[in-house]
Amino acid sequence: MSEVTIRKQAPRGMITLRGDLSVPALGAACAEVNGCDLPARGQAAHAGEAATLWMSSDELLLLLPQADVPDALTRIGAALAGSHHLAVDVSDARTLFSIEGAGLRDVLGKLTPADVSAAAWPPGALRRTRLAQVAAAIWLRTETEAQLICFRSVTDYVEALLHTAAKAGQVGFHRPLR
Amino acid sequence: MSTRLATGGRLLDRRRPMDFTFNGKRLRGYAGDTLASALLGQGQVLVGRSFKYHRPRGLVASGAEEPNALVNLGRGARLEPNQRATTTELFDGLTATSQNHWPSLEFDVGAVNARLSRFLPAGFYYKMFIHPRPLWKYVYEPFIRHSAGLGKAPTEADPDTYEQFHAHVGLLIVGGGISGLQAALAAGQAGKHVMLVEQTAHWGGRAPVDGVTIDGMPADDWVKNTVEALENMPNVVLRTRAMGAGVYDHGFVTVYERLTDHAPEAEGPRHRLWHIRAGHVVLASGAIERPLSFAGNDIPGVMLASAVRDYVENWGVSCGDRTVVVTNNDDAYRTALALRHAGLEVVAIVDARTTPDGPLLREARDLGIRVLTGKGIGAAKGGKSLESVTICAQAGEGAPLEEIACDCVAMSGGWSPVVHLWSHTGGKLTWDAERCFFRPDPTRAPTGADGQPSVTIAGTANGHLRSAEALCDTAEAMTAILGSDIQAAEAQDADEGPLVPVWLMPQGAGLPLRQKMWLDYQNDVKVSDVQLAAREGYESVEHTKRYTTLGMATDQGKLSNINGLATLSQALGKDIPKVGTTTFRPPYTPISMGSIAAEARGEIFQPLRKTPLHDWHADRGAYWEPVGHWRRPYCFPRDGESHADAVAREINATRQGVGLLDTSTLGKIVVKGPDAGRFMDLLYTNMMSTLPVGRCRYGLMCSENGFLMDDGVVARLDDDTWLCHTTTGGADRIHAHMEDWLQCEWWDFKVFTANLTEQYAQIAVVGPKAREVLEKLGGTGLSAEEFKFMDWRETTLADIPARIFRISFSGELSFEVAVPAGRGRALWDALLEAGAAFGITPYGTEALHVMRAEKGFIMIGDETDGTIIPQDLGLGWAISKKKDDYIGKRAQMRSHMADPDRWQLVGLETLDGSVLPDGSYAIAKGKTANGQRNTQGRVTSTYHSPTIGRGIAMGLVLHGPDRMDEVLEFNTVDGPTVKARIVSPVFYDPEGAKQNV
Amino acid sequence: MLTFECPYCGVQADETELSPGGEAHLTRHGPESSDEAFEGYLFLRENPRGVHFERWRHSFGCGKWFLAARCTMTLEVFGTYAAQTTEPPQDILDKITGRRPGWRRLG
Question: Which residues does the UniProt record annotate as the domain SoxA A3 (chain B) (predicted)?
């Protein structure tokens, strides 16, 4: 049985960027502020602690150091001045968790109806879904580390959910691919 | 009497004895036992009492179909009623008690009902308790309540934990008998992602018990080899103690896994409810044997032939010293042979068929077992245990030809495929007249999202009762599913002759016999009850079921269904397929409530949303009010203070000095884009496009059918950006509403929205000293001239970047300050410190409500209820006449919406100063057609106002605004009416002087 | 318990991740409309026993509304498509007539 560790992350800078994702200036602006490529549909791109998450067909979530957010917003605003978009600071609206361990798929499977098997959810894939009774985005950074983003107000609920699921042990359903 | 044999029992580990208690008696069994086999092994045949007549009941079956042996399991917090002894694995220290009797299992007062059974026919309760009416409340209902229910409910919280698990698989196979195993092997070898579940703790199903040979080896060996092969496949998941509970749409299946019932000391969850999405489902759920309907067939000692065989083969238990086998088919002969091989006495095989023949029958005869053909059991005799049976001609009326002493009857009325899961999601059945059962109709299978059959049923469950046929059928099914040729394992079992249907034994049995023939053991439904229902006009099987309660017990008619149906069809003179079956519904057998709740209990029963200031509120002993999933402080009572006192104190402190309110839960949605102004004008009834940057405006939002759905203050942030405040409950709903219109109607608009509700902590600083407090924190330019009512601006307070809105929901000078949520607590602490000199007082939602009512401000959900338009509330001023369109405009033009008789908002003031009851109605002259008082208005908000020192209320009244000073009468619950005067809804500072300072 | 493919994210969404939104392809009638037209828009629905076009929101996912063609009897799904259209796409209509020969759209 492999242990799964749940850790609430320190506050992270987060920017919601809505716009036409096919506009080259948008991708360029994102890359400039956090160094990440534009992720494909249903994917997350990351560079170190920074990441860009595909949240919807016209929405990205940029992760970056919190101190960099005001400057990043200014730069995005300037880069996309001529193009209809919305960029806002949501750093305080959400909480980030990391879920680490080879058994993380079994832990998540207790809480989300999404298919979190290796075939459907490989590293790099992002899924917005339901975690028990609340919304969450789960993103597999590596085969043994997932990150989960939920709304700030339900942080304690989500933390308790994850600990409950992890504490109950492995199901043995998801096995590492041979 | 039943007993444990010295040898035998393929599932038993005799080296590991286990102690348990039944009704306080210490008993002993072995590892591998079920509670049922352990009880039988200790001679305990009597296990319970029936529900209606309290008849003594013994074990009938050996598996999930058992109707009688329901026990209270465990004690204290782990007490659980209605646990089936046949599916309860024995563990050391198990404690069970029998149910439905008083004072004891052996002597039960309720058994008097059995004497009265002549007077308790089908529909008795419906017929009896209708008249006279007054008896219902004082006699009938208490009586029924006392007798209702099986078993004892636990009184303590369940200490165990449960979980659910979502799994997506290519192929789910339900049933781990030889068909299920063969299906899994084929699919596993083909590389499919397979999950195979088996409800018992053992693989192989019936084949090992029946002495089947597969691929030249005993079934047990073939099963062992196959399971080993499957265990080595990484693409196959195997689970025992996992029952397919329900099959639903689009490949959704629930599987109920019992993890620690057999090992209560083990760590981890007790049950796991799997939520499985399967690409395809294969049901290999086997079949269940049917009882025979003869008089006294419910006496303890009368059992299914297959169960008698199981007990001897699996657990080395003899169900009786002298067994009579009664049957209409060849399979039951296997029981006689098994008993004989175990050295037990089979007194006779009573075969209802006149000329049966086959290898099994010949073998029985060769062993010297007496075989009576064309005969049946006329009556079984005995009380708490079987003593004898009389033998009669099956073709006759039951005259006894001889009486045979026996303590066990092994009966078989044939087998019925387990089609429950096939039927759950729409699979249809067809009647097989030759073998007398409903079988799945493969041309009418359940279909999936692609419109193609989503469930395949195979093996015995598909009507192929013999092992060789079952394996061939499974191979065929898997060939179709996998698209490659699958070879069946080769099974050898004895050939069987045809069965002859026997629905009544003997076929000419008169009423006295039929009144003793049980169809449904648990609910005490007899052949005579179903026949009575038919005579009384119940033709539909669904109605008969409810009238007689046939099949409505916890076993859901697994044994009684087909026999009951056949009895009904005979009584109606119709063919069985014409009568049809009742609907099979999930779950297949009862599942625990804990597994349904899973993790959702205690602290995480529901998500509890917390504001950034939640911890401060909690530390201060806030009395909470749930608002959606949020918790908001209702008030902050001090030591010894009542909630009402606290609310009054908070209001007075705010109106006289300064108060603080956590308004973080209010919705905050940004609307941005070149078309945002146009969109805002459609969204709100007001004109929002003309709102200057830096200003705020109170706005109303209606649904397309005109009703007021939300309100709040809108701020224009810049040229193309608006910030919309919504009610606490409205944030998600209104954001979804905006997105709906933007995505589905006005998708050409260039507008983006974002729900920023949780990004900010928002704090209202309210009262005459509010400005001074903010200035102490470094706020500048906040004077009345520089920062007017309904202005907003960005500034820094206590070194925190903040957005301040000069808006008021209390009528006082008021500033709402928004800061990033993570800085909210710092600001709150700074405000408390800065305001200490002014007696700054945090207040809760009740003070908020009272203060807004004193000012006549409406509250969504109080003054509105989904049928109210803004015009009803005197809010016509907030509806732009200049706009061509807004959501709800057309609907408000409908005649009913423009009706001058719609009730209108007014203030209400009781003459005696009391507080009107919430929801109270204003009474009008006359009565309705139903004899109720006519009404002319109702109370929507009502409070004690500490500011005014009396009860104040708002309400909707017919022609209200035209009837100022008129006195109306309002009803109370079971009390006299209360008089109240119609007044302006603005009770406090009608000129607005207080907020404009 | 249905599953639909969200045409925006491409994931198979569970019914518990979705919110239903009633009949699709309604034409909005505003302040200038007649009582009859407005009644039809606001209240009258096809509610067919068979092929139906309906609105779903991927509310626990990308937040987008999409449209689905589904048989209300068998729950067969003929396809899902973006909400920004007034008519079902031709490939979906072709699929429906392929599966339900002789079928004709109501309304």
Answer: 515-599
pLDDT category at B515 given cuts 50, 70, 90 is very high
What superfamily in CATH does domain B291-413+498-509 come from?
A: FAD/NAD(P)-binding domain (3.50.50.60)
Cβ atoms B658, B769 nearer than 8 A: yes
**Test mutation, A14, A76, A111, A164, chain B, max B CBs within 10 A:** A164
Q: Stretch C68-84: mean pLDDT, rounded?
A: 97
Cα distance from B221 to chain A (closest Cα, Å)?
26
Counted across chains B and C, CB pairs separated by less than 8 A come out at: 65
Residue A114 lies in a domain: yes
Instruction: Say which residue the tokens 């009837």 belong to.
Output: B963
- Chains near B with 3+ CB pairs less than 8 A apart are A, C
Residue A4 lies in a domain: no
Q: Is A114 within 8 Å of B752 when comparing Cβ atoms?
A: no
Q: Name the one residue in this structure whose structure tokens are 């086998």.
A: B325
The residue with tokens 């018992």 is B200
Chain A: give the shortest CA distance to residue B282, in Å. Answer: 19
Task: Write the CA distances from B93 to B18, B79, B263, integer angstroms.
Answer: 7, 14, 10
The answer to whether the CB atoms of A56 and C8 lie below 8 A apart is yes
Pinpoint the alpha helices (H) of B836-907: 845-854, 889-892
Unique residue bearing structure tokens 């009880």: B39
Q: What local confidence, expressed as pLDDT, does residue B461 receive? A: 98
More confident position, B941 or B120: B941
Helices marked H in C5-102: 35-42, 90-99
Would you state the structure tokens that stand for residue B524, as one six-digit string? 């005490």
Question: Which pLDDT tens digit goes with each residue over B260-278?
Answer: 999 988 999 999 999 999 9
C-alpha B681/C-alpha B690 separation (Å) is 9
pTM above 0.90, yes or no: yes
DSSP letters, B907-923, are EEEETT-PPPPTT-EEE
Query: Which of B188, B256, B265 is closest to B18 using CA atoms?
Result: B265
Tell me which of B246-255, B274-283, B580-589 is least confident. B580-589
CB distance B760 to B820 below 8 Å: yes
CATH of domain B3-113: 3.10.20.440
Q: Which chains touch C (3 or more CB pairs under 8 A)?
A: A, B
Question: What pLDDT, in 10s, does the model give residues B207-224?
Answer: 999 999 999 999 999 999
Question: Are A76 and A29 spatial neighbours (Cβ–Cβ below 8 Å)?
Answer: yes
* Cβ distance of B268 and A169 shorter than 8 Å: yes
Tell me which amino acid residue B486 is.
Answer: I
CATH topology for B517-581 is: Arc Repressor Mutant, subunit A (1.10.10)
Backbone conformation region of residue B318, classed left if phi is above 0, alpha if psi is from -120 to 50, else beta:
beta
Closest CB to A168: pick one of B168, B269, B629: B269
CATH 2.40.30.110 residue ranges of chain B are: 893-997
Residues of chain B with CATH 3.30.70.1400: 667-758
**DSSP, res B209:** T
Look up tokens 């419906």; give the residue.
B126
Tokens describing residue B174: 């339900």
Final residue of a domain: which of A74, A89, A104?
A89
- Residues linked to residue B327 through DSSP beta bridges, in sequence order: B351, B412
Nearest CB neighbour to B168, from listed A58, A115, A175: A115
C3-99 — its CATH code? 3.30.2270.10
Domain with A113 in it: 93-167
Same domain as A97, residue A85: no
ipTM over 0.95: yes
Contact A12/A96 with Cβ under 8 angstroms? yes
Distance from the A172 Cα atom to the nearest Cα atom in chain B, whole angstroms: 9
In this structure, the number of other CB atoms found within 10 A of the CB of residue A44 comes to 26
Last residue of a domain, one of A30, A65, A89: A89
Q: Within chain B, which residue ranges are assigned CATH 3.10.20.440?
A: 3-113
